[in-house]
Design a protein that fits this description.
Blueprint: E1 2-5, E2 8-11, H1 16-26, E3 31-33, H2 42-51, E4 60-64, H3 69-77, E5 82-85, H4 90-107, H5 120-129, E6 136-143, H6 145-152, H7 154-175, E7 181-186, E8 189-194, H8 199-211, H9 223-227, E9 234-240, H10 250-259
Parallel strand pairs: 3-4, 4-5
Antiparallel strand pairs: 1-2, 6-8, 6-9, 7-8
Length: 262
């Protein structure tokens, strides 16, 4: 169930197993977790979230009526970021949610699947572009990854992301510059910051490597069907140069870059 609470988009799961599945599928920014659930308890949910690479870094706040010191310590031992007992003050909960989200956003510097920079690290490098004139940005977007994940599972989709990240990095190493930057623009998008005179060759090499590889991510038995499907993995790219500005700020630069995808 989806709703809006205190300005946040909220996904609700009444069963522990459902909560684990939601977290693996949607990867929320924060989990507020009760201990008493209808199937597995909150401790088991937290253990599974912390044990899975995709969900291991999601902040967890226990919100529960279990007030004993041993319960609190057990929750914190499992990696919970906070522990609030019922009855609780809604203003206190709001502030703790805000603080936890802020800490999480500051700590999000590398993607847990590919190990590439993301979040604030990427924003800092893109912001540097606003102050110079000898740069080029290449955006690499992998479309329909959600459908691939639904059909073949998280392990297979993570393998796709790792393979694509390696091909992008190797391309930059071969035809780019030693100080080229490669990171995540979003979970399924990559950004390369290079010099203006390298953008054409580097973009063409990335496109060629990826377009020749996408079919091989599918099992052999499915490739003929996938070739005719609109839901197959697909590549879209964009490039951006200083001459296509000026750019008012980072958000403006990102907006222009996304609009150029094709």
């Amino acid at each position: 169930m989806i709703g809006a609470v205190q300005g946040y988009e909220v996904l609700v799961a009444n069963w522990g197993e459902d909560g684990v599945k939601v977290c693996q599928t949607e990867r929320p920014d924060l989990v507020i977790l009760d201990i008493r659930l209808n199937d597995i308890d909150g401790y088991e949910v937290a253990t599974r979230l912390r044990g899975n690479r995709r969900t291991s870094n999601i902040p967890i706040i226990f919100l529960t009526e279990k007030r004993s010191r041993s319960d609190r310590l057990h929750g914190l031992e499992l990696g919970a970021d906070d522990y609030i007992t019922k009855p609780f003050d809604i203003q206190e909960l709001r502030l703790r949610v805000r603080n936890s989200l802020q800490r999480s956003s500051l700590g999000s510097v590398t993607n847990p699947v590919t190990g590439l920079p993301e979040g604030i690290n990427v924003d800092e490098r893109l912001t540097d572009c606003l102050e110079g004139n000898d740069w080029a940005i290449i955006l690499v977007s992998l479309d329909n990854l959600d459908g691939f994940r639904e059909a073949y599972g998280f392990v297979a989709s993570d393998d796709v992301l790792r393979a694509v990240s390696l091909m992008v990095k190797n391309s930059a190493r071969k035809v780019g510059y030693p100080d080229d930057f490669v990171g995540h623009f979003s979970s399924s998008e990559f950004v390369v910051i290079t010099n203006a005179d390298a953008v054409a060759n580097l973009g063409e090499r990335i496109r060629s490597r990826l377009e020749n590889s996408l079919d091989y991510f599918y099992p052999l038995r499915d490739r003929d069907i996938i070739d005719r499907s609109e839901e197959r993995l697909a590549l879209r790219m964009a490039d951006l140069l200083p001459s296509q500005g000026p750019f008012d700020d980072l958000d403006h630069l990102k907006t222009v870059l996304l609009r150029r995808k094709k």
